[in-house]
Amino acid sequence: MIPLGHYLIVSAVLFAIGTTGVFLRRNLITILLSIEIMLNAVNLSFVAFGRAAGDMDGQIITFFVMTVAAAEAAVGLALIIALFRHRESLNPDAFTSLKW
Amino acid sequence: MPEALVFYAFAALAIGASLLVIGQRNPMYSVLLLIASFGALSGLYIQLDAPFVAVAQIIIYAGAIMVLFLFVVMLLNASREDGATWDRSHPIPSTRLGKVGALLAALLVVQLGWALSQLGGRSVPVGSRVDGERLGSVLELGRVLFTRHTFAFEATSILILVAMVGAVVLARREGEA
Known about the structure:
The complex is a heterodimer.
Chain A: H1 4-24, H2 28-53, H3 57-87
Helix pairs in contact in A: 1-2, 2-3
Chain B: H1 2-23, H2 27-47, H3 51-75, H4 86-89, H5 96-118, H6 132-135, H7 138-147, H8 150-171
């Protein structure tokens, strides 16, 4: 049997990778993908905790997180399409006209 | 111990593929690698006695959401990354801001490691206290979802509706009715 801590370590590493991607990458699509990585890292720890506690709620909340991820992807990609139509670029540095 | 071996193989695949996702210049490869990472995660879910979550992970994430991403990458013809000049040589920038970002991410790793080290019972095998038979049953899952979590479930449908309307409004061309 795998200890609970190992799942949590995998989850923490995945979350950190996602954060690194959001911080370091300058491509809107890759930033959205990094957010998906972070959501999945959280899902993994939810399921692992639920399994350890013998509770169904860990799996249930994973479905809700998946739904939120789907909604986020739909709206985020629509935003990306609208921005790309505006500037012909996927670099977030191209969309700084609101910066003072 | 085949079980531990499978766990480490899936965990290494998930982490390695995720690392490559943020290290890729081509968003197309990033999306495909993320699908591999999600497949490995669903293997971990099966080990955690959550077969339905594993299947939903494959169908919803790897199937629906990632195809949506792939569709947008192809639609925008964004296979090459158009960045600033410093961005052309390597996908991970080495500017001052990039260093701050890397520092913040490293800080997050330290914090998460500290939080994990404070957590009690982390060396307890994950399936030792309860039987996985009940947790893996789809019947039980559906019962809990539609009784105790009915409100959240219904709220989710509103969320999907809002996302749908939002996507249509945002992606519409300006000036059209």
